[in-house]
Task: inverse folding
């Protein structure tokens, strides 16, 4: 279970996953050892699943909304989709669509290839694609 201190550490790491523990400690008023041990604990418990970077690129990025058949295991479909080269994340969501895949590829042709491949799955009823025009990140 995470407490307020863990949340503050996570907030800082979300903005900059490379922020040194000593800098985090100074920002929140605890020792560097406290930050280190809490980050390691949250990693071992699965609260923090990994650290990533954000890149600026000329790639084509899109959200692909996917509607699946009623009696289909959404986890199974998500596990298949995340294996596609170019699909970075897959979310199970509520609403009209069942899944959202985040695609980051080098060209619109590659995006189209992925969408066509996704549509060939028997349990996928439809897709809707939204191109990402501009990205905004927290500091």
Result:
């Amino acid at each position: 279970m995470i407490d307020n201190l863990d949340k503050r550490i996570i907030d800082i790491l979300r903005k900059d996953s490379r922020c040194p523990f000593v800098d985090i400690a100074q920002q929140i008023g605890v020792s560097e050892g406290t930050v280190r041990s809490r980050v390691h604990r949250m990693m071992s418990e699965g609260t923090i699943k990994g650290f990533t970077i954000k890149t600026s690129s000329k790639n084509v990025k899109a959200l692909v909304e996917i509607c699946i058949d009623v009696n289909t295991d959404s986890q199974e479909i998500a596990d298949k989709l995340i294996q596609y080269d170019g699909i970075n994340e897959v979310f199970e969501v509520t609403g009209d669509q069942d899944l959202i895949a985040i695609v980051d590829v080098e060209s619109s042709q590659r995006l189209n290839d992925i969408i066509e491949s996704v549509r060939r799955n028997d349990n996928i009823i439809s897709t809707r694609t939204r191109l990402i025009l501009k990205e905004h990140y927290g500091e």
Q: What stands out?
A: DSSP finds five helices and four strands in the chain. The domain at 4-45 is CATH 1.10.10.10 (Arc Repressor Mutant, subunit A). The mean pLDDT is 90.
